[in-house]
Amino acid sequence: MIKTLIIDDEPLAAGIVQEYLRDFPQFEVMELCADGFQGMKAIQQHKPDLIFLDVQMPKITGFEMLELLDEPPAVIFTTAFDQYALKAFDAKALDYLLKPFSQARFRQAIERFLENQETGNREESADQELNQLAEKSNRLVVRVKNDIKIIPVQDVNFFEAEDDYVAIHTSVGKYLKKMTMKSLEESLDAGKFARVHRSFIINLNGITGIEPYERETYLLRLRGGEQIPVSKTGYARLRQVLGL
Amino acid sequence: MLFNAFSNPSTGKWIIPGAGVIWSLGCFLLLKYYGVEAEIAGVDSIVFALVFLGGVFVVDRVFGLFTPKGKNGWLLFAVPFFLSLIGTLAHGYGMAWLYRSADHYLEFLSFGFYLRWAILALAELLVALLALVVSKLERQEEIQQREAQMLQLSKDAELAQLRQQLQPHFLFNSLNSINALVGSQPQKAREMVLQLSEFLRGTIRKDSQSWISLKEELNYLKLYLEIERVRFGHRLVVDFEVEPSLEDSKIPQLLIQPLVENAIKHGLYGVTGAVKIDLKCRKEGNYLILEVSNPFDPESAAPEGTGFGLSSVGRRLYLLFGRKDLLNTESMSGVFRVELKIPQYQ
């Protein structure tokens, strides 16, 4: 039995996936979820093999939901999104179905999934690619135990690398998210954030002062009182952004 | 050209001959005052006036078409300077030859040579400056006209485009809903096809500039909401609060629908559970006030790509009324409110 979840905020859209899926009795639909929050809980609960995922949904998008999963299941996107977004899907999803889609097209997607399952050829780097492809975003979605928190990027004071994770420091607290500094840096607005050190990206808005530290390195003071080390290249970058 | 300085060109035609007459009269009186014989004074002043007019003609031609800039600036002074020198010399030799026996006059002529030159040079310099100013004004007027034309053209195009900017997202999702309904509830599917067609027809209505009654626009809106309700089911509740007396008020087409679409997007995508959208309409002085409010989650920042509906409505209002204060938004305690003011003319 193949455990399946359908995550879509439109009941009819979820309905048609369910209807098409009746032709394949080996699939069992565990739950219909109307948004990413429900979806994430259901994924943790049922550990499905395959999810059908809409992109534009309440609260968090399908992409953001996937980012929160440690071991994402195979994903087939179902979306009305147009071409340019699809390029992004291409790499990370097993397949994508453009709404409205035909039964034949649906069958193709299912067959692709079954083939992949036989060969055990699951793209292991799926979640890394997901991060790299993250488009410029104005918010971050993080998981706090079993809850989801949405952080507007302007509320972030600074980011700090911690092994495989990035610590997101806001005035309210600190959150961990699994991603690389590189992909994070790329997704941020270069006019508002700067990578001042291998392990630090700071919000330019929060700078209150900068002073020399050791040879060719500096110390940056933030509004919250934190002190952030600035490397030589980081200082050059900072000067450029701030127009010093 | 100088005669273009007048708004009425037939008046402008007389400016140069008029200046010549005044110039010769002035010269004549001045010469008489200095005791020159009337006949000689008359010929002298007429010839000098012709010299002056010739200079004006040349200077006007030159500086009406050519504006000296930067390094060429000296031409503005050099042309009147040399032109007046040539003119004064020609006048002087001509008159001296014509009245070679009038000793008193000859003496007067050579005595006043530099004065004549200076006055003529000054007058021609002023004419040159005037010609420059006039040609600049002409060019500016031309540019303004062209700009106004272009603005009108782009305005029409933009209005048409903004009006027809159908969200493909909406269309494809609606088609997907129909696809789902065909199997389970064919009757409902047919209904939705008809609603969707009628909605699409509304967005491509031909006469984009005409205003329609509030009632018509609200009917159109209800059509749109019917479709959205099929898509989102029970989650979407919309409450209309419109004074019946306002139903005949005229408003520009398709201004409210993007606002409601925006409200649905923020409401439905920002909040889980049922969403209630309120639409209120009232009259305040000469304005029709439309208010759309929806719940939203202040904690979740807006996803990408939103706010387009609002900015497009703002842009349309600006194109229609030339004002930027007709669209206002506020958000407080979990409710987002958009207020739209439509001026009502009698």
Description:
The complex is a heterodimer of chains A (244) and B (346). With 244 residues, chain A is α/β, with parallel strands linked by helices. Chain A has eight helices and 15 strands. A five-stranded parallel sheet of chain A has the order 2-1-3-4-5, with helices on both faces. Chain A has a five-stranded antiparallel sheet with strand order 10-9-8-12-11. In chain A, strands 13-14-15 form a three-stranded antiparallel sheet. In chain A, 37% of the residues are buried. Helix content of chain B is 63%, strand content 14%. Chain B has eleven helices and seven strands. Chain B has helices spanning 9-12, 15-33, 38-65, 75-98, 103-111, 113-164, 168-184, 186-203, 214-232, 256-270, 308-321, and strands at 211-213, 236-242, 250-252, 275-284, 287-295, 327-332, 335-343. In chain B, helix 2 (15-33) packs antiparallel against helix 3, helix 8 (186-203) crosses helix 9 (214-232) and helix 10 runs antiparallel to helix 11. Chain B is rod-shaped. The chains are: A alpha/beta (244), B alpha+beta (346). At the A-B interface, helix 1 and strand 7 of A face helix 7, helix 9 and helix 10 of B.
